[in-house]
Amino acid sequence: MGGASHIQWEGNLLKLLDQRFLPEKEDYLECHTHLDVQHCIRDMIVRGAPAIGVAAGFAMVLAARFIIQSFHGKNTAFSWLDFETQLIEAGDSLKNTRPTAVNLSWAVDRMLIKSLAIKDKSPERLLEEMEQEAKNIFDEDIEVNKKIGEWGSTLIHDNFTILTHCNAGALATAGYGTALGVIKSAFYQGKNITVYADETRPFLQGSRLTAYELQKEGIPVFVIVDGAAGYHLNKGDINCIIVGADRVAANGDVANKIGTYTLAVLAKENNVPFYAAVPFSTIDMSIGCGKEIIVEERDSQEITHLKGIPLTPRGVKVKNPSFDITPSNLITALITEYGIIYNPNEKKMQQFVEKGGG
Amino acid sequence: MGGASHIQWEGNLLKLLDQRFLPEKEDYLECHTHLDVQHCIRDMIVRGAPAIGVAAGFAMVLAARFIIQSFHGKNTAFSWLDFETQLIEAGDSLKNTRPTAVNLSWAVDRMLIKSLAIKDKSPERLLEEMEQEAKNIFDEDIEVNKKIGEWGSTLIHDNFTILTHCNAGALATAGYGTALGVIKSAFYQGKNITVYADETRPFLQGSRLTAYELQKEGIPVFVIVDGAAGYHLNKGDINCIIVGADRVAANGDVANKIGTYTLAVLAKENNVPFYAAVPFSTIDMSIGCGKEIIVEERDSQEITHLKGIPLTPRGVKVKNPSFDITPSNLITALITEYGIIYNPNEKKMQQFVEKGGG
Predict the structure, then answer these.
(1) Quick check: B227 and A201 CB within 8 A?
(2) For residues B162 and B185, what is the distance between their CA atoms, to the nearest angstrom?
(3) Minimal CA–CA distance to A233: which of B15, B264, B247, B187?
(4) pLDDT class for A2, splitting at 50, 70, 90?
(5) 3.40.50.10470, 2.10.109.10, 3.10.20.90, 3.30.450.40: which CATH number matches B146-354?
(6) Strands B323-326, B254-257: parallel, antiparallel or unpaired by DSSP?
(7) Complex ipTM > 0.85
(8) A307 vs B309: CB contact, 8 Å cut-off?
(9) Residue ranges, CATH 1.20.120.420, chain B
(10) What is the pLDDT of residues A202-240, one digit of tens each?
(11) Which among A220, A225, A307 has CB closest to B202?
(12) Which one of B19, B167, B199 makes the best mutation probe of the A interface by having the most chain A beta carbons within 10 Å?
């Protein structure tokens, strides 16, 4: 992205670039409470699994400050137990906004674990250290993405045309991106890269966000409709597919934006490698396989209307699953910050995680 | 559709329902010349391979009348050779509007063959008989669709959920429909049917037209984004897929709306039958295989804008192939008005066509 991050922490508030209106408008929304952040996550003002995690980290700081201030307001002495109880409630409420991506609950839990570790400190110090933890999540996310980019770029050869889906770029993370991070790293190495970006209905993350990011970077990009990916794969236009991930199960199955599974099936049929770029924090060993991952169903209006314009006859029913599950046997490799897991399966995931990724 | 056809011949002009504005507005455009019809085909005011063929039949009548009138206007005697030369030119111009569907050139050629057969008649009689031929194309198309519906309905069992793509319904034909004709026939037989309609970007034939038609018929329908078909197939929600066709090659490969190939690959992966409903006139034995079929690339604005609203950053490039090719080995069966061709291949297509379909 080059410029300012779409997630800006200003000490007492969180500013989020409103991704619903990109690329037309670059408006920031100010979040003063964790409920503001919750609204932004639910309405996809901020979206992308790692970005949601980063925003949730700061939301927990806003929640902590609000709770501490409420002791002052009520003129009661600070009670860590009351504080922690209310912080857990705020965290639960945040986690419930979007069920599929694991990074949201991962970030909330990390902030809660931090608050437990510093329970004996003063409220002011507690807040300071929680703020630092949220900043760490932000900074680490960018570092992680750059490492994913380095590993992933070894899979990208000169003159490659890469298909991607949704937006797994700077706008889906603290910055840089996972799938787009791989593409950027390869591009920065001087490789001649062309990207085909699925428009990714219904939210159009591909045509609106991925095209916007790549255009800013000067990386050649063609937007295609989701239905055209198969045509280009079959024609031999595509050298590999790279996507992000919202949750990876213990057997390597990947939950990602609706349409991802279709690309993996098409990749197999056409002998094209299919990669998912996943931060270690996206791996959820508590989930045995993809079938156990909850797939969020979003509002029908996302499909029936576009910017208020009706696209369907009035009253027509829709199904709007926001994610799908790609079984690990369709995945050529997972690209993590610690290295590449080829042909992921339960055993390889277990070994990888036991080594702490290293 | 029940009501009036979307293609209405009024003796001296052709009225076409403007499908760009459905389901919001039901506006008809009047075509007084074959050039008006050409415009309507190019801009997808009328679309769907059989419907384009039917409209082209009437366009040839409008062309014939215009040519005959021009003799009167110039006060010159009618010359059949001049007439036929100009009629062939008009036909070529019509054929060039959209390259992929064979029905367009099939209908133009049928009208030219008719004009050749009645070359010794008076201009008035010539016009009368050409008009009758265009009406025959219209009437036969509906008959053909109903027969396809009868054959196809034998493949649809009670409580089936059927996935379809684009619009292969009354709005894509003279009436009734090919893929939707099969669904309607099964529904009229009292079978409990549910339809999943891919929205079919970029022109949204599924969410705008198929949903509109099925809703009018009272057939339960859910609109899904194109990227969600794989999710529902993998979940076991779908019993079979039925699509239409724009051209069938001599080996059984099918050209149809972009996204169709993807569905066929997903059907194979998930062991779900994949059917294409094709009138005999859609089979083009002069084309050896799908790779030889010209795939129309349409304007980038179809992807970058929706009703004037930009969906992509300014200046972004797109690829907009309007069709794709499904190889015959992914097709469970072709449903024609003469019967069902299971596992189509070159030999079976040859035998089928040699018997005149019968």
Answers:
(1) yes
(2) 13
(3) B264
(4) very low
(5) 3.40.50.10470
(6) antiparallel
(7) yes
(8) yes
(9) 7-143
(10) 999 999 999 999 999 999 999 999 999 999 999 999 999
(11) A225
(12) B199
